[in-house]
Known about the structure:
- By secondary structure, chain A is of the alpha+beta class.
- The longest helix of chain A has 23 residues, at 389-411.
- Helix content of chain A is 26%, strand content 23%.
- By secondary structure, chain B is an alpha/beta fold.
- Chain B has a single domain (2-244), classed as HUPs (Rossmann fold), CATH 3.40.50.620.
- Chain B has 6 helices and 13 strands.
- Chain B is globular, with a radius of gyration of 21 Å.
- Chain C is α/β, with parallel strands linked by helices.
- Chain C folds into 2 domains: 3-168, HUPs (Rossmann fold), CATH 3.40.50; 198-310, Rossmann fold (3-Layer(aba) Sandwich), CATH 3.40.50.1220.
- In chain C, the strands form 3 sheets. A 7-stranded parallel beta sheet of chain C has the order 5-9-4-1-2-3-10, with helices on both faces. Chain C has a 5-stranded parallel beta sheet with strand order 13-12-14-15-16.
- In chain C, strand 7 (124-129) and strand 8 (134-139) form a beta hairpin.
- The longest helix of chain C has 13 residues, at 95-107.
- Chain C is elongated and about 60 Å long.
- The chains are: A alpha+beta, B alpha/beta, C alpha/beta.
- Chains in contact: A-B, A-C, B-C.
- The interface between A and C is medium-sized, with 12 and 17 residues.
Amino acid sequence: MERESMEFDVVIVGAGPAGLSAACKLMQLAQETEQELMVCVIEKGSEVGAHILSGAVLEPTAMNELFPDWKEKGAPLNVPVKGDDVYYLTGEEKGIKTPNFLVPKPMHNEGNYVVSMGNVCRWLAEQAEGMGVEIFPGFTASKIVYNDDGSVKGVLTGDMGVAEDGSKKDSYMPGMELLAKQTIFAEGCRGHLGKQLMESFNLNKDADPQHYGLGIKEVWTIDPEKHQEGLVVHTAGWPLDNHTEGGGFLYHMENNQVSLGFIIALNYTNPHLSLFDEMQRWKLNPKISQFLEGGERVSYGARAVNKGGMQSVPKLSFPGGLLVGCDAGFLNGAKIKGNHTAMKTGMLAAETIIESIKAGDIANKELSLMGDKYKSSWVFYELHKTRNFGPALHKFGTLMGGSFAWLDQNIFGGKMPFTWHNTTPDHATLKPAVDCTAPNYPKPDGKITFDKLSSVFLSSTNHEEDQPCHLQLADSSIPINQNLPLYDEPAQRYCPAGVYEVVKDEQGNDKFQINGQNCVHCKTCDIKDPAQNITWVTPEGGGGPNYGNM
Amino acid sequence: MKILVGVKRVVDFNVRIQVKADGSGVTTDGVKMSMNPFDEIAVEEALRIKEAGNAEEVIVVTIGPKAAQEQLRTALAMGADRAIHVETDDEIQPLTAARILQALAEKEAPKLVLLGKQAIDDDNNQTAQMLGALSHWPQATFASEVEIEGDKATVIREVDAGLETLSVDLPAVISADLRLNEPRYVKLPDIMKAKRKPLETVTVEELGVEHVAAVKVLKTAAPAKREAGIIVESVDELVAALKEKGLI
Amino acid sequence: MSKVLVIAEHDGTNLNGSTARAVSCASDLGLDAIDVVVLASDGSSVAEQAAKLTGVTKVLLVQNPANEHAVAAFLAPQIESLAADYSHVLAPSTTFGKDLMPRVAAHLGRPQISDIMRVESAMVFDRPVYAGNAIVTVEAPEGLVVGTVRTASYKAVSNDGAASVETRSVDVNLPSHTRFVELQSGGGDRPDLQAASKVVSGGRGVGSEENFKVIYSLADKLGAGVGASRAAVDAGFIPNDHQVGQTGKIIAPDLYMAFGISGAIQHLAGIKDAGTIVAVNKDADAPIFEVADFGLVADLFEVAEELEKAL
Lengths: 550, 248, 311
């Protein structure tokens, strides 16, 4: 079918920190070199920020480089970190404060800011629009458009107004092709086009498999008496056992609000583990609940993060496009931060494009300069320094691994002469259900802990009802015939939004039910399904969560 | 003929409302804002009337802060021809809104004013009717079907008793109900074009409208939680209870 | 002496039940008198019914051929000419009152208080905003108060009154720009979910599309609309235009009967304004029981069958 198309110099997929930093940097460099540049950003969320979920403590390095005058321009970095506590939780009741000198150096937070990345992105979008970037929220990039020679030509926006059965509704509007000389993919962790690019261009052939975690986050308005603006708290240990990596955070933001969350590595092995319930019960430890009692939970959401670090970074360039931010995977697991590296790699992509234009035609070319820029940037320097942090935790468990991390980071400065690898992908780590015990989770108390559906309610998630399911099964029999007997269908417990259920049909047989409407676009199913049978594709544009200051 | 359509910037219908702890209102900081859904239906209807050859120009107007221009741009991207922004940071109540629209209607002389039946923030459901009264125009509220024939409009209205049909002379005010139409999706090139369509800004004072005695909001509270009632033991007991309440 | 005028809603023959609820709200104002006005072409029988409403002082009967159908553009100027004697003018917040009263208010240069759900004083009222997700307490400015009454918040007054009926002639010029064509009543078919005063709803517990017949059958017996939870819609038991809840329809029937619905918060968001909620569920721990006025822990099919027989 003939599609309408629009042409730009650069199309950016995703209005997150990476995509928007790329857009801003492109316009700044275009102005400096006095060139006209047509740049557009498309974003699947209903507005910029609607799908942004992050801790977040922002290290302002990239921001300082992108907008040295960000303060005057009013960037929402309003809360400097004032206190930095790390606890090792030993049980539901207890936790030990780790003395500062024992905390691995990358986890120190002086000079950083407690922010809502959603609001930072809204601000970045204003800057970009002010410089002439076209930003289109509510539009998905559903497919990659290729040239005959196999190079990337652009992306296709999703069709709108398609019914559940695939037929066209009255409101049907076909997607259009957004064509560009270079397309920057900045979809965030486990981008669904990024995943396709990895395959078509074999981008990760020299890299370890990517490793992931799921972060589940809430925002609370708390008692002003208990609020300590700028206080940053991290926890390790309980409720996870020594073989499951993860930890919690609680950041005191502005306006008597705290942002708190729990990240669990998706290489966990017990299929009975419920990520949502681990997060809920973690809040019961007094080190956390002391702040929450008497407060009100106002927001909820979840998002996968990549934590493979340096060893998992794929090749960043391919004919016609570049991969930036978490779509490639630059999160620094030791710092538990990826916003500064996402922003910086977006800026590197912009520099790559502008410098390549100087050197000649860039249309649909591969700009391998991107890889060189990354290797000589501080992003690579810091990922290299912390490269053994994640694998150490994986190899030795959180206690011994943590000790190694301290030695490695605080004594040797990350310069030990070896690199560890973790080559088992996260979907292949589950043990059979029969060999594992199911944790006994407390019932939600409606004060500190809650059930899944009332949580999803707070994410303001909505999808147009009558549309094809955006969670596709390659083989619809696998959940019941394979995953259920082997792993008690773990989707029921790794999904933080209650999308997947095993219910009984009319004949009393087990049936796999997908409640796609609940989906908060975290991508965990796409990552963790042991059969790699679930593919997350883009729903109709504008669908998904509507996060405020997440 | 010209059609004037009023649109309002409101908290998006997907957003869960949070009442501020001090009772001063609901949280709107960092909250997604959109065009009032009933107004979107009104814009769509105006465009369909124009596309059917029954109107030459669709003018959208909003009353509100600078940021409300976003909603005007959305309406322009849907296909409206030009926009008027009555800029004010004051809270505008329906009677004042109706007076502002009346002043604009006198200036622009539209044959039809289309409004949403109510805004989903204050849920007042007043402005269209008030404009009808002030202009001495006919009104057809809660429209689920509109047909224009010459200088008359036939409107099917959704009323509690069923569907009522009214015939009104133009100029008239019509307020849109949910089932009037399904608004179109906006196309990307149209969003870009909308940025170049004319958007005029005026103030309430320039229109010669004075603020009128207004309703004062004393406090905002979260609704009372429903309490659990009683568990009945049998259908008979249930039937008796419902009969006593006059429900069956 | 301050008096309130309540505009009667009727179909020419019968007084609409919403009027008795508006009178109930008027009683809460604590004024010296409550008058009801019946605007009709031939309204003596309606006026008699209005005269029986408890608390009513006097019924004004305004007869005019133009009042055969409730056209706001005709009724508003007549009410305007009567309003001078009153401190408050109220009508039920039905499509009748919603259409009419703002036109009256604007004619008189007064703001309107919509959907009064509680009277704090003669000038201070509670009303819902954001689809009932917040309640505002508002104060009307000094002078005549024009308002509509949220009927679900008031019980109808009883019928043991004996007010006098006074025929009034109102001399105003009525416009010719509006013509009533017809009214197609929604009767016959099952009532629309959003307009229905009673709704019977089924959830995943109903089990299948086939089993949903039980819900339809009971609804028809009650003259009720049919609703469903999202779980039932997602399971394919019933089309999604029946879905009640956050992402479906938000409804406020007088009676809501939930069969096999667990009562997730998303569903409860759609029925928070319902008058009386009845829940039937096998699971005694289902959250729906926390909001139900009447709960019955039992097999929904047995209950539905018994109930249908009992009606």
